[in-house]
Amino acid sequence: MSGNKLRAVIFGAIGTFSETSQLQLRCFNAAFALNGVDKQWSKQEYVELLKITQGGLPRLQHTFPNENQEFLETIYNDKNRLYQQKLKDGESVLRPNFEEFCDHLVKNDIRIGIASTTHLETIETVLSKSNIISREDFDFIGHGGMGVRRKPESDIYEIALSEMNVQPDEVVAIEDTHANSMSAINAGIEQTIVVPGELCKDQDYSKAKLVSESFGDLRSEPQLDSHLAAAFAY
């Protein structure tokens, strides 16, 4: 950060702040059954599919390369419907210490934003589960409805930097997968931290500033620059 003051922390994919991979896997498998598909993704298979960076539909196309596109879109839409309902029913789990971390940043005049390419409805549903922070605490919420290219392309981060009026060296980005972290790095954010998702711990994070097990661990990460360590000491 070259001595520049930390002005903002941008959280990336929804998996950065809510552990949803297992829930999404269950919803995909339910959508297969709903559409008469004799297939269930195993956990290990889904771990490998998560390395396909363009989202759920390309993962379906990878698994069913000869299937009709319209049918795959039906499965994908059914999965999303089931997923949204389960989120609203309370199956969304915010990652430990995420709320406290955000609250600390806001109280110390460090702005927070979200640079996601998922559905806005999903983001809002997850944030509604918090008892400490709210949607209004975020200066910017990026989502898939903005017509951006998916990560690792840097589009959503470039919009976030512009909308929040901050420079890449004034920002810390926090992501959950290799491809998502590369989106922030490709936008020039050198201070990119990865807090890996439950099913993404074995990916390549060599280009990230550091990898941390949890938001709680960020309070005492020895690899953090001194001014970042002070900012994160909630």
Structure description:
This protein has helices at 21-34, 43-49, 56-63, 69-91, 98-107, 120-127, 155-164, 178-186, 226-231; strands at residues 8-11, 111-115, 138-142, 171-175, 192-194, 210-211. The protein has 234 residues and is of the alpha/beta class. The protein has two domains: 8-18 and 95-231, HAD superfamily/HAD-like (Rossmann fold, 3-Layer(aba) Sandwich), CATH 3.40.50.1000; 21-91, DNA polymerase, domain 1. The mean pLDDT is 92. It contains nine helices and six strands, in the order βαααααβαβαβαββα.
Distance between the termini: 20 Å
- For the record, the CATH class of the largest domain is Alpha Beta
Structural class of the helices, strands and pairings? alpha/beta
**Helicity, in percent?**
40-55%
Provide the CATH superfamily of the largest domain: HAD superfamily/HAD-like
Strand order of the largest sheet: 3-2-1-4-5-6
The count of helical stretches stands at: 9
- Looking at the structure, the CATH topology of the largest domain is Rossmann fold
Radius of gyration: 18 Å
Strand coverage percent: 5-15%
Taken from the alpha-carbon principal axes, the silhouette is globular
Order of helices and strands: EHHHHHEHEHEHEEH
Largest sheet: 6 strands, parallel
Instruction: Domain count, please report it.
Output: 2
The tally of strands reads 6
Average pLDDT reading: 92
CATH architecture descriptor of the largest domain: 3-Layer(aba) Sandwich
* Low-confidence region ranges: none
Brief rundown of the structure:
Helices cover 41% and strands 10% of the residues.
